[in-house]
Every structure is written in structure tokens, then in C-alpha cells.
Specification:
Bound molecules: NADPH dihydro-nicotinamide-adenine-dinucleotide phosphate
Shape: globular
GO biological process, one term: aldehyde metabolic process
Distance between the termini: 69 Å
Active site: 232, 266
Organism: Natronosporangium hydrolyticum
Number of strands: 22
InterPro entries: Ald_DH/histidinol_DH, Ald_DH_C, Ald_DH_CS_CYS, Ald_DH_CS_GLU, Ald_DH_N, Aldehyde_DH_dom, Aldehyde_DH_NAD(P)
Pfam families: Aldedh
Helix content: 40-55%
């Protein structure tokens, strides 16, 4: 059996070793998941809620341990990892508490043509859900799916990124402490091949979080078995700063939103469009704040290393391409790429078609552009194949601008606030994917609606029978004309 070794990208120190799942072991894993799922589903909402809240409590008690492990495998500063784990705890709490309200069987209003039937709606778990996670938020991203999927009554087989297996295993081990009876949450380790095998394994639904390119491969694999997919993919999020914004708050949010986790955040700010009249002031503040950040590993660091070594040349190439097209680096630049680190880089005068303005950079690089009007800011922000999140700073028009952005989520006078709002759905549009985790929609994403209609009386007008007469059909026409024939009624 081959082993996967994870290491700290800042120091190279080994973090853990895990057996790689051989794809032939998947059928027994899925089978074990199916048996566990039946037991889990039969527990009902109240029992599942109790256990999920215990899991949440365990994570809260041991959150610094989780954060240390995240920090060790990704290189992100421990304080940033704590913020990540906190959001995941919120997701567990919310899903556990709200699953019954959102998914419990209910009666639904009957409608006229079938007035004789009582309408019942149930949300049933899919069965075994496959969850494939990325390395950049190795607790929050899987937990967003796990929380909804488990609360809805599914079992889960989770494949963490090969860069963060220890975090994935830690989560599954903690869950097993509160749910020791059956393997409701199983973890399998390995690279993309193992992920692809999970897509083809016969899971009943697949929740993928990762890059848009891999998302396409996941879709192709799942298409073979018509396995439904949730796709949480990449982003190129924009921030818009209006002329009446609180500039200190906007600059602070821009620096954190763009540079947190060294820019390796799916919904991190990568592009900033600023009202021309406040542009210079805003840029000065952002540069001053960003240049004071510490890059490194260990206590005191604000930005850690680039976790995925192969991203370093991508970041460098995007900066080089922008500079070659006439952009200027007002902070950082090509020299900022000093493996395994990239120092904060702020680019101006970047042509809209440059890769750094269009493609995910996934590094601490901000592109700041002045705009003559807010309409132009919206046009440029929407000029992207991605549509994950966004941020708007301003007073009078901020909410209206938020409404015009083609994204799944927007923070107003804040940044990434939707990442902590477990009651709202998370997800994007366009190349950022489809489907939702978290919130009511997230719970429904992991349940299949089942409609049952129970006849309670003879039909008003017999129609679903060959025994209907010409008179019945004429009555049906008359009734439909009366019920639906007048547009305003
Ligand atoms: P990848 O797409 O490289 O990998 C994501 C996961 O998919 C990993 O577990 C990976 O395994 C696995 N995988 C790789 N190939 C396949 C395959 N053919 N079939 C099935 N699974 C496969 O993304 P990263 O891990 O590099 O994460 C960064 C990306 O994730 C960024 O684009 C970021 O924007 C996005 N992201 C999106 C979020 C969202 O909510 N929209 C949240 C967080 C990140 P392995 O690691 O072993 O290769």
C-alpha cells in the first residue's frame, strides 16, 4: 500500500503519513457507508442534531488543535486557521439546528385541478455523498458540505486534498468519537486519481470544491453514471469602492480580503475598482497597510508560504505578463516571488484583458483600477467568466451596486462576511460552479424532494381515467376557462 506524506510548505517538516486508497477498495467503503447511512437516517432529526452538536462542541473545545494542524499542513498563520475553524463550527451548528425545519415532511397547499388530493412533501437523503475538498481551507470547505449532508441524513465519504490529509483524517476521527456506532463519515486518501475513482464509485451525490479545471473533469466523470454534482469552483472576486465609502474601512478590508491566506482564498479579493475621485487616497492607504505585513512562517507572520509549489510560477507569470503589458507594481512585483513565499504585490494600470485581471492568481496580488462611474465598476466587475463573491464599499448606492453584480454572494461594507454567515447559501455562478452548500438551500442540496399525493375524495371532474365522458371533458374545459382564463384573477 503506497503512502501519502504531507509536510509543512514553509519548513518542509513532515506532518503525517496516510495510506493511499487503492480504487478497488472503494466498493466496500461505499457499501459500509450505505449500511451506516440507513442507521443514521433512522436516527431521525433530533438524534442527529444531538450528535452533530456534540461534534460541533468537540471542534470548539479543540479548535486550537485543529488550527495548529491546518497551519502545519497549509502554512497559513495559526490565527487565520482559527478564523477558518470558527466558520466551520458555525456551519455545523446551523445545519444541526435547522435540518428539521427545512427538511421535515410536510403538507403542501393543494391546487385547483387536483382539489381532491392532499399534497405531501418529504426531503429524503440521497444516501452516500462523496465530498472532495481542496487544501486552501481544509476544514471549512469540507465541513460546509459535510454539515448539510450529514444533517440531511446522508453518510459521507470524504477525500481531502493530498496536501492536507492530516486535517481530513482529524475531522473524521473527531466525528467517530461522537458517532462511534457506524462509519457515517469515512475518509479516503489519495491524489486526483482517487478523487476521480470516487466520482465513478456509485456515490449518490458528489460535492466538489476545487478549481474550475478539475471541476470540469469531475463533471465528466459523474456524467458517466448521472451522479448529481455540487460544484464549488474558482473565483476572481472584485471589490468596488464608491466615492462615499469609509476609506479606512475599505482599505483595511481590501488588504485582508486580498492577502488573507497569502491570497489563496477562492472568494478572496483579486480585483479592485475604485471611484476615480478617491482612488489616490485609497491606493495610498492600501499600499501603506500591505507593506507593513510580515511574510514568513511561525508566530508574528501575517502571510505564510504558497502552499502549492506549482502555483508559484503561475503567480510570477501573471505579474510578468501584466508588467510587460504596461502595468506598474506600486508594491512588490517580480521580486516579490521568493519561494516558498510571495510578498504582497499591488499592480496598477493593468489592461482588463491581462491574465492577472481575468484568471485566478491565487497569490497575494491585488489589481487596483480607477473607474469614472459606478456603472463602469459594475461592468468591469462582471467582465469575468467567474462569479463567486464580491465586496462593495459605499453608502448611498452600495446595496444597489451589490444587486447588479453577477456573483453568488456579495459583502457590503465588509469583506468575506458571507463566509461566516452559515444561514445563507454559499456558491457561485458561471465558471465558479453551481449548487449550494450552507443555509436552507444547502440542506436541500443534499436531499431529494419526494412528492406524494393522497386522494381524499372523488374527482371534481374525472380526467385521469378512460371512463371520463365527453361531458366530463367539456366540464373540464369550462372549469379551466373559469379558473385560469382571466389573466388578472
Ligand atoms: P484542485 O481542483 O486541484 O483539487 C481539488 C480536489 O480535487 C483535491 O482533493 C484534488 O486532489 C481533487 N482532484 C484532482 N483531480 C481530480 C479528478 N480528476 N477527479 C476528482 N478529484 C480530483 O483544487 P485545489 O486543491 O488546488 O484548491 C484550490 C482551488 O479550489 C481554487 O481554484 C479555489 O478557488 C477553489 N476553491 C473553491 C472554493 C469554493 O467554495 N468555490 C473554496 C475553496 C477553494 P489532489 O489534491 O490530491 O490533487
Amino acid at each position: 500500500m503506497t503512502e501519502l506524506t504531507s509536510s509543512n510548505p514553509g519548513t518542509g517538516a513532515e506532518v503525517g503519513r496516510f495510506p493511499v486508497a487503492d480504487p478497488p477498495i472503494l466498493p466496500p467503503v461505499i457499501e459500509a457507508g450505505r449500511a451506516a447511512q440507513q442507521w443514521w437516517a433512522e436516527l431521525g432529526f433530533a438524534q442527529r442534531r444531538r450528535r452533530l452538536l456534540r461534534f460541533r462542541a468537540l471542534l470548539a473545545e479543540r479548535m486550537t488543535e485543529a488550527a495548529d494542524l491546518v497551519s502545519a499542513e497549509t502554512g497559513k498563520p495559526t490565527a487565520e486557521a482559527v478564523v477558518e475553524v470558527a466558520a466551520a463550527i458555525g456551519d455545523l451548528d446551523w445545519s444541526a439546528r435547522h435540518a428539521r425545519r427545512v427538511l421535515a415532511p410536510r403538507r403542501v397547499r393543494r391546487v385547483l385541478p387536483v382539489a381532491e388530493g392532499a399534497a405531501h412533501l418529504a426531503y429524503l437523503p440521497y444516501g452516500v455523498v462523496g465530498v472532495i475538498g481542496p487544501w486552501n481551507y481544509p476544514v471549512l470547505t469540507p465541513v460546509a458540505s459535510l454539515a448539510s449532508a450529514l444533517a440531511a441524513g446522508n453518510a459521507v465519504v470524504f477525500k481531502p486534498s493530498e496536501l492536507t490529509p492530516a486535517v481530513g483524517q482529524w475531522l473524521a476521527d473527531r466525528f467517530a468519537e461522537v458517532v462511534p456506532e457506524a462509519p457515517v463519515l469515512q475518509v479516503i486518501h489519495g491524489d486526483g486519481e482517487v478523487g476521480a475513482a470516487l466520482c465513478r464509485s456509485g456515490v449518490d451525490k458528489l460535492s466538489f470544491t476545487g478549481s474550475t479545471a478539475t471541476g470540469r473533469r469531475v463533471l465528466e466523470a459523474c456524467a458517466e453514471t448521472l451522479t448529481p454534482v455540487v460544484l464549488e469552483a474558482g473565483g476572481k472576486d472584485a471589490m468596488i469602492v464608491d466615492s462615499d465609502a469609509d476609506l479606512a474601512a475599505a482599505a483595511d478590508a481590501c488588504v485582508w480580503g486580498g492577502l488573507t491566506n497569502a491570497g489563496q482564498t477562492c472568494a478572496g479579493i483579486e480585483r479592485v475598482y475604485v471611484a476615480a475621485e478617491i482612488y489616490d487616497d485609497f491606493l495610498d492607504r492600501v499600499v501603506a497597510q500591505a507593506s507593513g505585513l510580515t511574510v514568513g512562517t511561525g508566530p508574528g507572520a501575517d502571510l505564510g508560504p504558497i502552499t502549492l509549489p506549482r502555483q508559484l510560477p503561475v503567480i510570477r507569470e501573471q505579474i510578468a505578463d501584466a508588467l510587460a503589458r504596461g502595468a506598474q507594481a506600486v508594491l512588490g512585483g517580480l521580486d516579490a516571488v521568493a519561494p516558498p513565499y510571495v510578498h504582497p504585490t499591488i499592480l496598477v494600470d493593468v489592461p482588463a484583458e491581462a491574465d492577472v485581471a481575468q484568471e485566478e492568481t491565487f497569490g497575494p496580488v491585488l489589481v487596483v483600477t480607477p473607474v469614472p462611474t459606478m456603472a463602469e465598476a459594475v461592468r468591469l466587475a462582471n467582465q469575468s467568466r467567474y462569479g463567486l463573491g464580491a465586496a462593495v464599499f459605499g453608502r448611498r448606492r452600495a446595496l444597489a451596486i451589490a444587486g447588479q453584480l453577477r456573483t453568488g454572494m456579495v459583502s457590503v461594507n465588509d469583506v468575506l462576511s458571507f463566509a461566516g454567515m452559515s444561514s445563507l447559501p454559499w456558491g457561485g455562478v458561471g465558471a465558479s460552479g453551481f449548487g449550494r452548500v450552507r443555509g436552507d438551500d444547502g440542506l436541500r442540496e443534499f436531499a431529494r424532494p419526494k412528492s406524494v399525493v393522497v386522494r381524499q375524495a372523488p374527482s371534481l371532474v374525472p380526467s385521469r381515467t378512460f371512463r371520463r365522458t365527453d361531458r366530463d371533458v367539456a366540464r373540464l374545459v369550462a372549469l379551466y376557462r373559469r379558473w385560469f382564463g382571466r389573466p388578472m384573477r
